Amino acid sequence: MEGGGGTPPEILEESQAGCSLPTGLGANGLKKSSWGFFLTGIVGGTLVAVYAVATPFLTPALRKICLPFVPATTKQIANVVKMLHCRRGSLVDIGSGDGRVVIAAAKEGFTAVGYELNPWLVWYSRYRAWREGVQDSAKFYISDLWKVTFSQYTNVVVFGVPQMMPQLEEKLELELKDDARVIACRFPFPRWTPDHVTGEGVDTVWAYDLSTLRGRRP
Ligand SMILES: C[S@@+](CC[C@H](N)C(=O)[O-])C[C@H]1O[C@@H](n2cnc3c(N)ncnc32)[C@H](O)[C@@H]1O
């Protein structure tokens, strides 16, 4: 009977062909789902980036000796430079952070090198050195300080933590030559007697001459 009940012809055609789109994937649904992919990509990408940047800053806390990134103060650097007065040659900053000590030393005429575990800090240090025009005399390497031999350096700077000082003291005593000077910032070495001390509080700096420690004249 015409005009009776039943399915309208256009709907019947679609469902008979067996290829009707699910309601969620209509024009509107497609728009919504591409926004979904886009947002997921943005959130996912941001999380990966945050993880990649944060991990090198957080992993020192998981090491046996936790040596976090704490930059030297302006006064501390001035005290280091004071201890370098009348010295020359090569200089190394052990755990060079954002490169400020190495750059300050390069500006004083030293051939200065920094070893640093955190790659972001090393790349940033290189950028800073370039910006300050000392990229030829200030070099930075991504390295674990315990795997580097320091024998070639005549000036050694370290801003460490108390837990690492006994082990570092032994390492430097074995490796350094008689004409070397070691400058410790904030925390002194436990056994060595300093030749000079300057500054106060957190800016205190101690200088140790290997020749004195060994009872030899340079
Ligand atoms: C206290 S901060 C001193 C930074 C810089 N020397 C200054 O005075 O501004 C110590 C630095 O040592 C780095 N560090 C920690 N463990 C290290 C390791 N095993 N080898 C090399 N660098 C390390 C940290 O990432 C941090 O930047």
Automatic annotation (TrEMBL):
Subcellular location: Mitochondrion membrane
Keyword Transferase in record: yes
Keyword Membrane appears in the UniProt entry: yes
Keywords assigned by UniProt, alphabetized: Acetylation, Membrane, Methyltransferase, Mitochondrion, S-adenosyl-L-methionine, Transferase, Transmembrane, Transmembrane helix
GO molecular function, a single term: protein-lysine N-methyltransferase activity
UniProt superkingdom: Eukaryota
Membrane topology recorded in Swiss-Prot or TrEMBL: Single-pass membrane protein
Listed InterPro entries: FAM173A/B, SAM-dependent_MTases_sf
BP terms from Gene Ontology: methylation; positive regulation of sensory perception of pain; regulation of mitochondrial ATP synthesis coupled proton transport
Transmembrane segments: 35-54
One Gene Ontology cellular component annotation held by this UniProt entry: mitochondrial crista
Family of this protein: Belongs to the ANT/ATPSC lysine N-methyltransferase family.
Biological role: Mitochondrial protein-lysine N-methyltransferase that trimethylates ATP synthase subunit C, ATP5MC1 and ATP5MC2. Trimethylation is required for proper incorporation of the C subunit into the ATP synthase complex and mitochondrial respiration. Promotes chronic pain. Involved in persistent inflammatory and neuropathic pain: methyltransferase activity in the mitochondria of sensory neurons promotes chronic pain via a pathway that depends on the production of reactive oxygen species (ROS) and on the engagement of spinal cord microglia.
Name the UniProt record assigns to this protein: ATP synthase subunit C lysine N-methyltransferase
